[in-house]
Amino acid sequence: MEEPTYLKEINNGISEMYKSIMEIYGDVLSVMGEPDEVKAKEICEKTKSVMEQEEKVIDLCVEALIRHQPFAGDLRAVTSAMRVSYDLARISRYLSNIVQVIGDVNSGLSCAPDVKELLESGWEMIQESIRSYLSKDPILATSVIEEDAKIDAGYRKVLSKYKDYAAGGACVLMNGLIARIIERMADHACYISAETVYMVTGSRIGVRAPKCPPEHHHQ
């Protein structure tokens, strides 16, 4: 059965958001190598554009709900698109935040080799999450969610490595802040993947709930 035109338009909007974020990601890598105030401002403006794209996707979703009154799988596709557009907008904002941290601390890649690797791993999750969403592939989506543990481990590794680095407080601060931002970006990749699973199967995966520490039972 062919996909309704309104869903094609919504997914085109999601795809355009992703293309814009890909461009922002490339710019962020450039700034991590060498802080650049002009490039940082361009990234901020591109992030604002992604926010505008998100609003357009939401408008398309609302129009689809009112005019076409979709049900079953089509209804899930529309509601999932609204959430995914939000997740993509948050990812673009987090990328912009990385640049802001670099500018505030005034240190580049030489101060943050570990977080660059972590960022690349997080970005790979984001790419796979969008690929799974647009291709309606719940198996790929599930594999993305499983990768999140590696990002969490990488985040903890950065913190443990730099917490006693007395020689460079600015580096410690920058690495910790950026690692946390990347960890949040990876969470949104999981959210997108969870929406893919829901859209295709109708089953929810509770990845949006906070990760609470395990209880320790004292003898």
Concise structural overview:
With 219 residues, the chain is mainly alpha-helical. The protein is built from 6 helices and no strands. The chain has a single domain, classed as Phosphate transport system protein phou homolog 2, domain 2 (Methane Monooxygenase Hydroxylase, Chain G, domain 1), CATH 1.20.58.
Question: How does this model look, in words?
Answer:
This protein has about 220 residues and is mainly alpha-helical. It has a single domain (about 5-200), classed as Methane Monooxygenase Hydroxylase, Chain G, domain 1 (Up-down Bundle). Helix content is about 80%, strand content about 0%. It has helices at about 5-35, 35-65, 70-105, 115-135, 140-160, 170-200. Helix 1 (about 5-35) runs antiparallel to helix 2. The longest helix has about 35 residues, at about 70-105. It is globular, with a radius of gyration of 19 Å. The N and C termini lie far apart (about 60 Å). The mean pLDDT is about 90.
Detail the poorly predicted runs.
none
**Proportion of residues in β-strands:** under 5%
For the record, the count of structural domains works out to: 1
Q: Architecture, CATH level 2?
A: Up-down Bundle
The first-level CATH class name: Mainly Alpha
- Rg to the nearest angstrom? 19 Å
CATH fold assignment: Methane Monooxygenase Hydroxylase, Chain G, domain 1
Helix and strand sequence = HHHHHH
Tally of DSSP β-strands: 0
Helix fraction? over 70%
What features would you highlight for this structure?
219 residues
